[in-house]
Amino acid sequence: MSEPEMTVGIEHETWNEESPYRIPSRKLGMWLFILSDAVTFGAILYAYAFVRVGTANWTRPFEVSSIVNGVIMTTVLLVSSVTMLAALGAAKHNQRSRSVTWLGVTTLLGILFAALHIREWIRMIDAGWRLFQNPTGGPVLFGSTFFCITGLHLSHVIAGVVAIAVIAIKYNRGSLSTGHVESVGLYWHFVDLVWMFVFPLVYLMNAK
Amino acid sequence: MNNTRTSSLPGMKANWLLCFVLLCIVGIEVFLTYQHLSTGTLLAFLLVLAFFEAAIAVTYFMHLKYESPNLAWSLIPALIFVLIMMAHMLPDAMRLLNLRVIHW
Questions:
Q1: Among A25, A21, A22, A17, which Cα is nearest to A179's?
Q2: Cβ-based contacts of A187 with chain B (< 8 Å)
Q3: What is the rounded distance in angstroms from the CA atom of residue A19 to the CA atom of residue A15?
Q4: Which residue is closest to A179 within chain B, CA to CA?
Q5: Which conformational region is residue A45 in: left (phi greater than 0), alpha (psi within -120 to 50 degrees), or beta?
Q6: What sign has the CA pseudo-torsion A24, A29, A30, A36?
Q7: Cα B44 from Cα B42, distance rounded (Å)
Q8: Based on the number of CB atoms within 10 Å of its own CB, is A46 exposed (0-12), middle (13-18) or buried (19 or more)?
Q9: N or C end: fewer C-beta atoms under 10 angstroms in chain B?
Q10: Which residue of A has its CA nearest to B46?
């Protein structure tokens, strides 16, 4: 499916104008969304930094097992970014079934990441951590910052998994183009990029 | 219309190599975590490494390197500006530690 050029029609006359930045509007829209989402995550991480710096006896609860789990999650997410690139590469070479296969692998890796994350949450909740509850008796803000930041990221991961699955199905049917695969790939890489900040700032900075 | 030329994009071998580099950086971050550094020093190291990882991801995984330079110049400076502006409130957090506690 070829991308149409922009047309501006005034009084039955049309001009074919090149799109800004020479990319489809879908791709530009995704980049602008990524920019706004990056600012959102930046704001929430700054808020976390603010309360952490301003709290005298901040709790650092993460055992080695939690850090190991975090490293595994990071590995899964990085590999999923590479499989997403494989899907895009296959799509650009018109290898539709190969691309859909790699999209499926990316979806599964995203589900694995979400499962590992939820398992970590359940472990912490079982230990007594809540949004406003600290089982060690320290500041309760750790719970709220941890669950809010990781919850926001997890919601992005789940949304990305759903989006990739939908695009894989529709691309397989031929109703979507390579451009759609590229756009969802951009979003998935952004989700991976955010985790590269969340893991060190939330997990490693709070390791025992 | 799409300016990213398929032939100039990195191949899968390069992508896996970049993935390995990113994992090595994560390994360095974990190593530094257990070196008993001060909080400020550890934070500085982790932030620098995280930004380096982000630069690799944006440049090579998101293919910003292969797009029109105007796109990168439009997006990145604006993001950096907003992040620097948000950082200006952080010194207030230091003041929180020294606020007088009122005992009723």
A1: A25
A2: none
A3: 12
A4: B2
A5: alpha
A6: positive
A7: 5
A8: middle
A9: C
A10: A200
pTM for the model stands at 0.88
Residue indicated by tokens 């032939």: B7
For residue B3, the model assigns a pLDDT of 46
Residue B73: what pLDDT? 92
Taking a C-beta distance cutoff of 8 angstroms, is the pair A120, A90 a contact?
no
**Which pLDDT value is given to residue A17?**
67
Pull the structure tokens for residue B88: 């200006």
pLDDT in tens, A118-140: 999 999 999 999 998 999 888 88
Summarize pLDDT for A147-170 with one digit per residue, the tens: 999 999 999 999 999 999 999 999
ipTM value, please give it.
Answer: 0.86
A24 contacts on B by Cβ (under 8 Å): 1-2
Instruction: Give, in degrees to the nearest 5, the angle at Cα A52 between A50 and A55.
Output: 110
What does the DSSP assignment read for A151-195?
Answer: HHHHHHHHHHHHHHHHHHHHHHHTSS-HHHHHHHHHHHHHHHHHH
What span, in angstroms and rounded, lies between the C-alpha atoms of A60 and A29? 39
**Tokens of residue A93, six digits:** 């070479």
Average pLDDT over residues B49-74: 93
The candidate with the shortest Cα–Cα distance to B33, out of A189, A208, A39, A82, is A208
Report the residue count for chain B: 104
Q: Residue A189 is nearest to which of B6, B62, B95, comparing CB atoms?
A: B62
Task: Say which of B1, B46, B71 has its CB closest to residue A5.
Answer: B1
Place B98 in a pLDDT band, splitting at 50, 70 and 90: confident
